[in-house]
Amino acid sequence: MEWREALLLQVAASPGMTEAQVLRTVGTPDETLDSRFTTIAAICAGGSYRPVPRVEGWRRVLVYREFMFLQMVFLDEHGVVICTTTSLT
Predict the structure, then answer these.
(1) 0.70 exceeded by the pTM?
(2) The CATH number of the domain where 69 resides is what?
(3) Of 7, 9, 15, 89, which sits 20 to 30 A from 68 (CA to CA)?
(4) Residue 47 above 90 pLDDT?
């Protein structure tokens, strides 16, 4: 994935969208993780991704891994996008 594609994902999955809309627009994530069972730091540590984003109030995250990029779409308890982030290794 190039930077251009990484930015396209951030536009395609914008705050306020529902999880279903993200899945239709962006596709199936590589992983879906729950905040009760993991942390953002743990997700990023798997590939030494930086920066480690700080996101408050997330309940689930859709994780898209592509080459050196880690795209994360953070959802609140209602399944609505809070924000998207890009980290790289």
Answers:
(1) yes
(2) 3.30.1450
(3) 15
(4) no
